[in-house]
Design goal:
- A 6-stranded mixed sheet has the order 1-6-5-2-4-3, with helices on both faces.
- Helix 4 runs parallel beside helix 5 and helix 5 packs across helix 6.
- The protein is built from 6 helices and 6 strands.
- With 186 residues, it is α/β, with parallel strands linked by helices.
- Strand 3 and strand 4 (81-86) form a beta hairpin.
Length: 186
């Protein structure tokens, strides 16, 4: 474990519009459901792009609890690994949702370090059909990631792939609020 300055952490975070399945790096994070057997949104797109081998491997994992993460190979993706994490369904924020969402990012990043990942891409976990308010989710995602990166120099690049102009705007604003450098937005 290496220590990095907080500015170094923010400098390793990028925001991008586009399709996470196109990420040319070590790992992508799948906003999965607890079965890990595919679904809609990002989950469905990742399963389609990775091919049927991903589903076959996921069947061997026995699902995943909310807030936790599991890792598989990337198969037909450019990324070597897929880290599957199950975000919380938003129920007003009084049922442990912030802690569970934070745990998704921490567990995913921990698995990345344990597997030698240097570059990783995240979607906006729980912001789709799970209904998490994007402003709050963005602050949790970026803050948790930056905090982790200050303790772990092993991860050189974290990219947040965001769908739509609103998501880019919300995440860019959160990045600026939390101390990230405006120039880090892609």
């Amino acid at each position: 474990m290496s220590n990095s300055k907080p500015l170094d952490a923010w400098g390793r975070i990028e925001l991008r519009p586009g399709d996470i399945t196109e990420f040319d790096g070590d790992a992508i994070v799948n906003a999965a459901n607890s079965s890990l057997l595919g679904g809609g949104g990002v989950d469905g797109a990742i399963h389609r792009a990775a091919g049927p081998e991903l589903l076959a491997e996921c069947r061997t994992l026995g699902g995943c609890p909310t807030g936790q993460a599991k890792i598989t190979r990337g198969y037909r993706l450019r990324a070597k690994f897929v880290i599957h994490t199950v975000g919380p369904v938003y129920g007003g924020g009084r049922h442990g949702e912030p802690e569970l969402l934070r745990s998704c990012y921490e567990c995913s990043l921990r698995l990345a370090v344990e597997n030698g990942v240097k570059s990783i891409a995240f979607p906006a976990i729980s912001c789709g059909v799970y209904g998490y308010p994007m402003e709050e989710a963005a602050r949790i995602a970026l803050g948790t990631t930056a905090e982790f990166l200050t303790r772990h120099g092993e991860i050189e690049r974290v990219v947040f792939y965001l769908f739509g102009e609103q998501a880019m705007s919300v995440y860019s604003e959160a990045l600026s609020e939390l101390g990230g450098m405006p120039g880090q937005r892609a």
